[in-house]
Design goal:
By secondary structure, the protein is mainly alpha-helical. It has seven helices and no strands.
């Protein structure tokens, strides 16, 4: 993405959309994104949360002083949790785990905090 020059507004909207998707409770997620979420599809959700996926957008907004380090750190905290959680813990990656496991509950809580901060960013 280095050769692309997305607008600041576009960058912010991409980040907000991804964070909002993660922040949804499982019932909203199911209705809005995958009406038939099956077990282990949650690994696909987690795989989308890699720093490289967000780096261009974060850097663009940070360099133009539209977001601060606190927002960057929240992104990194969410991403780090996905990177460090074991894919061998089966109960995390099921639909039931997605709904009730403390890992997913914590990720949604962080996403809600991050979304609140992103909603106050002015472009």
């Amino acid at each position: 993405m280095k050769n692309l020059d997305y607008s600041l507004e576009y960058c912010l909207n991409i980040l907000k959309r991804e964070v909002q998707n993660l922040s949804l409770n499982p019932e909203e997620y199911d209705k809005r994104l995958v009406s038939s979420l099956k077990d282990y599809l949650t690994i696909d959700i987690a795989s989308e949360w890699e720093y490289e996926h967000f780096k261009y957008f974060i850097d663009r907004l940070l360099n133009d002083k539209k977001i601060n380090q606190e927002i960057v750190d929240l992104f990194k905290k969410i991403i780090s949790a996905f990177e460090n959680v074991s894919q061998d813990i089966e109960e995390i990656w099921t639909l039931e785990g997605f709904k009730n496991h403390p890992f997913w509950i914590g990720q949604r809580e962080l996403a809600n905090i991050l979304l609140e901060k992103l909603n106050h960013v002015i472009i």
